[in-house]
Design goal:
Number of helices: 6
Shape: globular
Order of helices and strands: EEEHEHHEHEEEEEEEHEEH
Largest sheet: 6 strands, mixed
Length: 234
């Protein structure tokens, strides 16, 4: 599976592009702030055509570019519990005023928002099949009410055999290398996050490659062994 990742210009949000191979349709996961030019370069280089946008949750740093990427044709997929955030993700986040000022300083303009025209709501355990790729939706609330992970049976091209992984888990802001997503923003819940870590994340196979919403990739085996938030959950 062709997998390209690159960070957004603000908050270091990882945007992922997934495809069966060069010249195919692709999925764009979490198009954050200022990713459009880099995304165009990736699509041109690998001759890819976007088929849909997948969102791990509705925070502005993960959805800011969803509408320009979707245009008037592509659908944006988001969990039903975070659907309301796409109406006004600036207003539904405590980062609204801070982000507006930051973007004005960095890019010379304030943050603006237009809701995507086509939104598909997904639910837990649903399989999304687009661009020849099947992803299972794994609801893991805590960072937001509708935070999800996307589970894929395959691996990105170029993963060495000694990595001891055989599947991929795109975790958004549920799980990072060595940490987890914060729970003190509107819609967050420390109790819900603890349940998600115990009942959803920890039981998943150790052989999962973890592609997080921020920071470097890791493995679930490594996180179970070293991440303090996953200790004592077995």
């Amino acid at each position: 599976m062709l997998t390209i990742s690159f960070p957004a210009q603000a908050f270091g949000t990882n945007c992922y592009v997934l495809a069966d191979g060069p010249g195919e349709e692709c999925l764009v996961v979490d198009p954050g702030i200022g990713i459009e030019e880099t995304l165009r370069e990736v699509l041109t280089t690998h001759r890819l055509k976007p088929a849909a946008v997948l969102l791990t949750h509705g925070h502005i740093d993960h959805v800011y570019s969803v509408t320009p990427v979707c245009g008037g044709e592509l659908a944006a997929y988001i969990h039903s519990d975070d659907r309301y955030r796409l109406v006004d993700p600036l207003g539904s986040s405590s980062l609204g005023d801070q982000l507006t000022g930051m973007l004005e300083q960095q890019f010379g303009r304030k943050a603006t928002w237009r809701e995507p025209e086509h939104v598909v709501e997904v639910t837990d355990s649903e399989t999304v099949s687009v661009a020849g790729i099947d992803l299972d939706v794994v609801h893991a609330p805590g960072h937001t009410e509708g935070s999800v992970m996307f589970s894929l049976p395959g691996l990105p091209d170029g993963i060495p055999d000694e990595a001891e992984v055989d599947r991929t888990l795109i975790t958004g802001d549920v799980l990072f290398a060595g940490s987890i997503g914060r729970t003190d923003l509107p819609g967050g819940s420390a109790e819900a996050m603890q349940r998600s870590l115990r009942d959803v994340v920890h039981p998943r196979p150790d052989s999962s490659l973890v592609l997080p919403g921020h920071g470097p990739a890791t493995t679930l085996a490594r996180e179970k062994a070293t991440n303090p938030y996953l200790q004592g959950l077995s």
